[in-house]
Amino acid sequence: MKKFFSSLYVQVILGILIGIFCGVFYPDFAIELKPFGDGFIKLIKMIIAPLIFSSIVIGIAGMQDVKKVGRIGLSSLIYFEIMTTVALLIGLVFVNVIQPGTGMNVDPKSLDPTAIVDYVQKSTEQNDVMSFLLGIIPDNVIAAVASDNLLQVLLVAVLFGIGLTKIGQNSAEPVITVLQSFLKGIFAVIRIIMYLAPIGAMGAMGFTIGKYGIEALSSLGLLMVSFYATCLVFIICVIGGVLYIYARVNIFKLLKYIKEELLIVLGTSSSESALPGLMQKLEHAGCSKPIVGLVIPTGYSFNLDGTCIYLTMAAVFISQALNMHLSLQQEITLLLVLLLTSKGAAGVTGSGFVTLAATLPVVGHVPVEAVGLILGIDRFMSEARAITNIIGNAAATIVIAKYEKGLDPVLLHDKLGVKEPT
């Protein structure tokens, strides 16, 4: 029994259940638990930048092949674009077939623009493509490593890693040795922080239930069910199909392998909270360190499958609820715009909602304040978004590692119980 409760998997489940219980029966108290969830996420985010920086620099410097680094990056971006496009299309198809918003007949005049003013302000900042591209370049190297902008960290790490390959192995060796010791220390810190995962999950889940209430699910229940079902179909059929066909990996065995990370994401509604653990597990499963270091951070900005499904379903749902149904041309326009705006969403709670507010005005007649219709359940939908995102990035790493011959099939077999394709 003691061994059973010592499992992080079990502890996180208990934390989530306690959070739900407090949120349902003691909502005022549950809302006060929010700092526990926020604190845990901040602790994780505190070490993400140095973790990614060290992993990428060590991997690239050890690779001694700049062309291979570029090839991995290009392969990753192509894969991300294909998968996110499929996710957008599936979300669009499902929401048109199910039509969860049809019949609600919400009066546009009843919308409260003040409820989403902060999100609209953020969305206007995000809508500038050039600002997004320039934002990838940090003001200075130290600021990049100290920030929580993964793309800035990725850029500096790749450049520094390539720089080390140019100065020769003898000159680079002392730097690599220091970074290797530093990385071991980072993982030791992660193990300490993970002891707080059950408390973080309890605080975040308790706040969500206490703040928005279970009743929020009933009024927009069909949208919730439709979205969760669509994510499930995408995970099993699309991600699972790609994994099995290309790498002979059973999706359910992968989910079992990363179950602790999935539960942490479920409890905190943030895929970033599981990033360090996911990177370590994929390395332990036979994916090479440089590939993990390049694919995972890039995927957190460019391979958000769950966010893509959410964006198309939420946008069309809002138009259905307002009885302002989109034409085929408008839906195609929406899809094309989302191919760009969805890449700017970060893997943190609320980013999908901000991106939705930035994208909705492109369809013309749907008022941006209409996103407030789903504000009450957005927090509940963020769990499915984040879980789908992290599964998509785990699968992407295995596929890219297999394609780039950076996967140890024997080790993968031991961890997941898969076999090499014949």
Outline the structure in words.
- It contains 22 helices and no strands.
- It is mainly alpha-helical.
- The protein has a single domain, classed as Sodium:dicarboxylate symporter (Proton glutamate symport protein, Orthogonal Bundle).
- Helix 4 crosses helix 17, helix 13 runs antiparallel to helix 18 and helix 15 runs antiparallel to helix 21.
- The longest helix has 33 residues.
- The mean pLDDT is 80.
Helix content: over 70%
Elements, N to C (H/E): HHHHHHHHHHHHHHHHHHHHHH
Text of the CATH class: Mainly Alpha
CATH architecture label: Orthogonal Bundle
Using the alpha-carbon principal axes, give the shape. Answer: globular
Summarize the structure.
The protein is mainly alpha-helical. The protein has helices spanning 2-5, 8-25, 27-31, 34-63, 66-98, 117-126, 129-135, 141-146, 150-166, 169-193, 197-212, 215-219, 221-247, 251-257, 259-268, 275-284, 289-302, 305-321, 328-341, 351-359, 375-403, 409-416.
